[in-house]
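Translate structure to sequence.
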């Protein structure tokens, strides 16, 4: 039966603000002990989306009272030079968190670099040690976007234990760690990917569907069980009129924005599919807002962990 109730919008902006307020309070408490958590954000080259994200991360540090530093080497930087930079940041006492914005240029050895970051400063949770800790459910620095997904579910009082969570995408940044976090909350977890047969069969079985594949509007209404929770991790920029029409024809607000900016952002979930859901995270204003909030929380956590302070 199709539900006639309108779906609940899971407001990422509001939840992120609540987390940031909590982080700012913790920063104040640490300041009273003479401690100022610090983040170094490394942005290589000039990928426009990465520039926007990193600037926003650095600005949020400023807003919340953390120390921050943006290091922006040119995209000609070598792996060895990047390694030297990481070693230097590892050794600095005023830096608690090191963030290397991905993707890096193809000639840079990303895996080697992520392994060079001290696990206790790895606020992205990308170091193999932290991935292992996450897998074995030991408190660690968890990747920010998956941690944000859990915060949205928890703070919206949505049940996770016993629910069937289906994840589209098996990336190291989102899909795999999200699966682990949901599993530790006692969800039954299925990970789907580009080779999965009969994808809609799996997605229709989901109580919680997490879409993290980077394909605009991929999840269509037929793929969603009515009443399911949709977590849309995609941030895809649409610039072609035909694509715009496929997603937002007749949406006056979006049409105005598209005309003014020449582009519009759409998630991995088709807007029509949200109408079938019980609850969903919008794009923009959903999961994306949590990524930065959780980075701030992880930086404060790293500052405490490194000094042996209670969490
Ligand atoms: N690129 C896309 N998402 C992320 C993230 O969460 N952290 C870093 N460092 N790079 C990213």
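Result:
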């Amino acid at each position: 039966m199709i539900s006639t109730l309108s779906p609940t919008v899971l407001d990422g902006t509001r939840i992120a603000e609540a987390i940031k307020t909590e982080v700012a309070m913790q920063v104040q408490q640490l300041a009273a002990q003479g401690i100022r958590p610090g983040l170094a954000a490394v942005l290589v080259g000039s990928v426009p989306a990465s520039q926007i994200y990193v600037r926003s991360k650095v600005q949020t540090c400023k807003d919340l009272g953390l120390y921050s530093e943006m290091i922006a080497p040119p995209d000609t930087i070598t792996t060895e030079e990047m390694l030297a930079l990481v070693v230097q940041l590892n050794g600095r006492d005023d830096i608690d968190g090191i963030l290397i914005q991905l993707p890096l240029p193809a000639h840079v050895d990303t895996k080697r670099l992520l392994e060079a970051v001290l696990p206790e400063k790895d606020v992205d949770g990308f170091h193999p040690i932290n991935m292992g800790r996450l897998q074995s459910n030991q408190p660690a620095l968890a990747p920010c976007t998956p941690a944000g997904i859990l915060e949205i579910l928890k703070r919206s009082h949505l049940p996770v234990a016993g629910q069937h969570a289906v994840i589209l995408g098996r990336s190291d940044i989102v899909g795999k760690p999200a699966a682990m976090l949901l599993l530790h909350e006692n969800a039954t977890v299925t990970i789907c990917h580009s080779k999965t047969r009969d994808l809609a069969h799996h997605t229709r079985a989901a109580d919680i569907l997490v879409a993290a594949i980077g394909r605009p509007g991929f999840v269509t209404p037929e793929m969603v069980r009515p009443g399911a929770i949709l977590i849309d991790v995609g941030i895809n920029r649409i610039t072609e009129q035909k694509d715009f029409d496929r997603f937002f024809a007749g949406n006056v607000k979006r049409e105005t924005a598209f005309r003014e900016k020449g582009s519009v952002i759409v998630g991995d979930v088709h807007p029509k599919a949200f109408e079938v859901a019980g609850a969903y995270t919008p794009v923009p204003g959903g999961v994306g807002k949590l990524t930065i909030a959780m980075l701030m929380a992880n930086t404060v956590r790293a500052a405490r962990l490194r000094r042996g302070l209670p969490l």
